[in-house]
Sequence to fold (725 residues):
Amino acid sequence: MQTPLARVLGPKTATSMSEQLGLETVRDLLRHYPRRYARRGEQADLADVQVGDRVTVLAQVRSVTTRPMRNRRGSLTEVVVGDGSSRMKLVFFNHRHAQLKPDAWGMFAGTVGEWRGEKQFAHPDMHLLDSADDDTDWARALVPIYPASKDVSSWVIQKSLKLLLGATGGFGELVDDPLPEEIRARHGLLPLAAALLDIHRPTTMEDVERAASRLKWDEALVLQLTLAARRRAAALEPGIARPRRAGGLLDAVDAALPFALTEGQREVGEELAAELDRDQPMHRLLQGEVGSGKTVVALRAMAQVVDAGGQAALLAPTEVLAAQHARGIRQLLGPLGRAGELDGDPAGTRVTLLTGSLKAAAKRQALAEVADGSAGIVIGTHALLQQGVDFADLGLVVVDEQHRFGVEQRDALRAKGTRPPHVLVMTATPIPRTVAMTVYGDLETSTLRQLPSGRGGVSSSVVPAVEKPGWVDRAWARLREEVAAGRQAYVVCPRIGDLPGDEPEDADGAPPEEDGPRSDRRPPLAVLDVAELLRSGPLAGLRLDVLHGRMTPEEKDAAMRAFAAGETEVLVATTVVEVGVDVPNATVMVVMDADRFGVSQLHQLRGRVARGKHAGLCLLVTDAPTSSPTGQRLAAVAATSDGFELARLDLETRREGDVLGAAQSGTRSGIRLLSLLEDEELIATARAEATALLATDRGLADHPGLAAEVAALASDDRADWLEKA
Fold:
């Protein structure tokens, strides 16, 4: 299974497979599963292919016509192929294939183009199947269509696999099955060799389903074993208990809160307090609805650690968010957050902000406060991870918006403690149960669903700019009405503007465009352009400012301070305001080109308004037709404020690799067949089996094949994806 493909297929084919498909060994090729299956005489996918797609289709030649070209020398050969119900044209310039005759069957691969409204392949790669073909057994029933590349076609992969699987009698002896026999029997699963044969050379779709069920188990069990091993290792780490102390900073924080904690906040708070009281480090994920008060829960945990003599570090993804956390916590603590200053309370602590943009003197002071322990609460960005940042006694690491950080970054901060600190990971993007089990399986999970009382709530509407242009005018009028009532507003755009290297900022949550090729679309609307249009047009006379990621830290901080103080009435921004920004007086958000953002991202943006007592309004402006998939996706966002329901919609409408992150799909993670949406029960069962296997005295000692699979996943950078949401 670990034999290099070059020894089996030759250096040229092996090099192409390695460079373009990431396939290095026999095992890699056997685990390169078909994308779908085609059948002769049945409808394939000609009707579904889109212009710009690179696809492989199985079809029959219907007609072949060759004629001289009108405006240039040479001939044009047009071949019409069909799949039983739909047709497509193949075009060849100055090249005629003698084998292309009516009634011949073949597989054709290329990039779908269009000429005069008709889809076509220009000079496609092809592989004809006829009665004399050595591959007719591949096409007698189901023809596997593989993920392919420019130089490695689906039929090259077929032929390579036929070489590996050819001697069926001996193939089973070459394959070591890593799955314990008792697990296979308990769940009625095929042996691995049989599953691989059936996935690559099926006779019926029932063969495919049985094979896929077994191969999904391989993926799920190895993944859950890796996560379960991490949980067990974490449970054995020697930490330091940080018990709650009466009359300390935590009690002072509770007394200073200007609102009552929700029932959910209290319950999660007690959960965290109990875990902090243990000498085994806490490893917990705190997820919740936008605006559910996760930061307050984290602050109370930090205060408990400070009471116990330790320090707490809050890692934020942006300087804007780090600065806002520091301002908010200092304001809440008052004198308790200024220990050592003239007006500070000696019973309190010091809140220190450490970011990369600090001036040299301020940075030296911050580093000294961190090192001597006077800073009990340290808030920062990636700057906290750098060498030279030394904590006196790091007791708790809080990672805000975990999906912005990787495993190395979390571990780098944890390593700054004398002993492993407690870890609290927060995300405001609600996570479906399957994703939580798969991506955060090494963490215990707490969830906040309840919003604090007194919140006005947000209503959302889609504004179809092309279909109903008058609605756009009404949107600006509605924004002016809110400002006239003393409120404030955001206008969000996907791009910054006319700056060098300008690209959409953080708009990585958007799914692939369903309504046509991107080349036909205008560029995304930009902050700088829209701000000027609004100043001289529908929002003339209002106090308007901009905020985007290319501003200096001082400029961003000044813009946010002015908006928070009410000096700015309308803030035109990129998604730099997506998370954490908290201005209770902001009640309106207009999202321009809303179709350029993903479901979860829109939900995050919407959460920036109605954070006070006044009701909020979110207007999603789009050029997409309301009847299109994009229009329907936006309508679904507008129809519900349940982040967990939207998270499931996100998983349905986007590729799972996008949800998990680029490094979490395909060969790096080992997830090829497993669906987080469809295989929830299988994932849960595999998690239970993994926990039971590791709970035995010998663990995986009696299952060397399974141990090798787990080691292969955990031994290199493929394990990175496990902790990126």
